[in-house]
Write a structure and sequence with these properties.
The protein has 199 residues and is mostly beta strands. It has helices spanning 2-8, 12-19; strands at residues 37-43, 50-54, 56-62, 67-73, 79-85, 92-95, 97-98, 111-112, 114-121, 127-131, 148-155, 158-173, 176-177, 186-198. The chain has one domain (42-198).
Length: 199
Amino acid sequence: MKNLCALYLLPLPMLLGLSGCEPAEEKEQEPEVIEYATLTVETATESEGGAVALTSSMCTSDADTGFFEGSFVADSGAMLTIKIKGFSTGTGSYTCTQASDNSTGEIGNKFDNCAIELVIPDVASSVNTYAMHRSDVSDKDFTYSGSCTIDTTYMEPQVQGTISCTGLVQTDYQGTARNPINPDVTADIMTDSSFFCDI
């Protein structure tokens, strides 16, 4: 009994040493992953569509020109680019259309009101790009005939929005420009898709 009593008088580090136990190491906390954009995508290729979560964002808004641009990226290579002309910090609803001088030849004004471009991973370990306008004169001719809207709200400094876009045309296939473009190979961003970012 005397020896047991003596143990209680030992300092805690010595007791732990005698018992073979060590203080538990604190686990490093994983950094929080923020999903700045969550999309539901439907494509002609079943394995290509589905849920897309984008965990990095960069948004800018020019008060003088009213031009808003948002870029959202995921580690997988997925990317969403949003552009809005005449962006309002109030509640806004924008219908995105291809500019009339964009479908053939020169790229012209590219788009009216707003534009969406979507990059998603391909099953062959590359990426495919879907858009509603031609960005460069090297892009092959196509006419966007889908329907695309962006609705936004703003509470300083954050913009929140929802997206609904059908018939985005595949402009790049497995990282290379499509030639020719097949108007039947498209992607849809469904109505439950949303984004937010600070400006």
